[in-house]
Amino acid sequence: MDRTAHGNPTKNGEGLLKTTTWGTLIALSLLAAAFGFRSSFSSSPDGSATPQAEARQESAPRQSTQSVAEPSLEGRSLGKESGLSSASSNQDRRNGFSSANLQMPAAASTAPSNLAAKQDAQVPSLSSPASNNNQDPQSLIAAKIAPDLKGIDPHKPVNVIIQYRQSPSSELASEGLTAKAELPLIRAQLVTASAASLASLATHANVAYISPDRPVKGATNQDVSAVNADLAQASGWVGSGIGVAVVDSGINGVDDLNSGTWNSPSRIVYSQSFVSGDNSSSDAYGHGTHVAGIIAGNGYASNYYNYPGVYGGVAPNAKVINLRALDANGNGTDSTVINAIQKAISLKSTYNIGVLNLSLGRAVYETYSQDPLCQAVESAWQAGIVVVVSAGNQGENDWPNTDGYATINAPGNDPYVITVGASNTHGTGSQSAQTVTSYSSKGPTAIDHFVKPDLVAPGNSIVSTESYNSSLESSYPNLAIYPCNGGLNNCSSQFGRSQYMRLSGSSMAAAVVSGVSALMLEQSPSLTPDQVKARLMKTAWKNFPSYTLATNLLSGVSFNVEADIFAVGAGSVDASAALANTDLASSSYGSAKSPAATYNSVTNTVSIVANSSTIWNNSVVWGNSVVWGNSVVWGNSVVWGNSVVWGNSVVWGNSVVWGNSVVWGDTSPYGDKQ
After folding, report:
1. Which label site among 75, 172, 470, 477 has the fewest CB atoms less than 10 Å from its CB?
2. In the 8-state DSSP scheme, what is residue 202?
3. 249-263 pLDDT per residue, tens
4. CA nearest to 641, candidates 92, 100, 90, 91
5. Distances in Å between the alpha carbon of 620 and those of 202, 459, 548, 616, 626?
6. In 334-410, where do the E strands start and end?
7. Considering the entire predicted model, what is its pTM?
8. Which domains are seen in the chain, by residue range?
């Protein structure tokens, strides 16, 4: 079957036509620029014209001839060809390559000169113009346009997010356009424009980057004990006074989110919908209510009714701020998510918002410094809010022969935030029983190659609050949890309606870490986001088995997954250990920024390189072996020697785009076998 990366057949010649048309449009823009480039050129000392535009050019995405697994309920293929490979084939690939050595240099200056990863100094800034005399003007204009905009029909209207270097002025008016919405959080505007007009827009000096308003889709209680949150709760840490903002599909006012019993005041202290044309903040999809229950549910219904277990959350007394960005089908856009994040920042002091949970994501299309979602989460981080993001559920995505590496979602690819993958406790409440799930997305991040995820947490087969009559409940009735008879040996609808359901995915794992972050802020309110991140990573549980045979419940396919640094990060979150730890990282913004992974094609080695301004260069307190653990960092030499993963430009090239443009909630309803 011939499929493009977006799942649509391509007619012969169509790609050439569109490419040629785009080239013509840019050329025409340049011709107009000869009579006045809208101040995009300034005179250099020698009198020549110097382009004041993006210095770094991102090439257009290389499309895969094999489509990835289309996310069903955020990242999984249901009944469709998914490209999943068996464990035996994965192992055969690994055994066919020689080993390499993983090196751990202390600073960027020791990295090989031919490394593919870009360091911070090379990442373009959207706030100030950059000049590059070595690039022609056409390339400079093209660098301002997102790769997934360059192949569309030039005559088709498209919603785009225009980011500016300074506050927008007359750029739109001069093109005959008007803004649909303002996005001041990232100094941007939402605009509907024909694709043909984008090249002209890009010639404005104040225009930094143009990207589509990409669709987003919304991607327990053994998870509490598995991360030792029960010990933290026994010590009195329950998230009291801390506000957790949940950007998701809405949250229903279920009993478990009240202050006490069913008739007590709700702990959902604020609700607002950012979904266009729908002012309801309730959860018709069922994703946000489940996530909120993991973070802050008190387990009331499971205690009051005859349920087979008690399904409380990690921070059962935290306040919840319900910011709905996903519709009844779990779909949203970059702009709805950005608006919700901006509201969380504005409400920070009102509700003492210390944590922002984003159990959603989409594919990576550009460097994090240009991605509008990443810019939004960084604004929240800089405002003093701990941002927790799901890694994604593309770990089984093997296109082409990468064993699921380089599949971290945006905005989880941002180095500032805490990115969380999913572990499996195998039906126990035991920390030591955890293994890596088959579906949890793995690093390094596409394009920028940051080491992600930062942490993992229980995310497989998690029981939490259900949104009654929601899309998820209707689509997967067998995942509902019903009350039981007196002997707890017969649980069904005859004993009452279900108030809980079981879901799997990195969405659930991110919610666990958000809850633990709320406990830490209750104990130490002065902690900065970077200090929370650093302490969580250092105190994480690091004793994963080197390899895990994980079997997908839906497909029955098994995967031999290695618990390396790109699968489990610094390890599994441990609430009790984090609360007991007193190490204090620098309070400066970005001090716990995730390091980059770099690949040397000459020596076939991978190195972890931390920015000089981060704490990871302190080998005594925050060094690599302390935070990531020797067994996690070094792993098995087989994975480092796989030249398909590390040597292929799909992972290390700058044109990586995987999946589709949908932003989804990172939930996989069935998950792995227990």
Report:
1. 477
2. H
3. 999 999 999 998 778
4. 100
5. 48, 32, 31, 10, 8
6. 353-358, 360-361, 386-390
7. 0.77
8. 14-63+130-204 (no CATH), 217-652 (3.40.50.200)
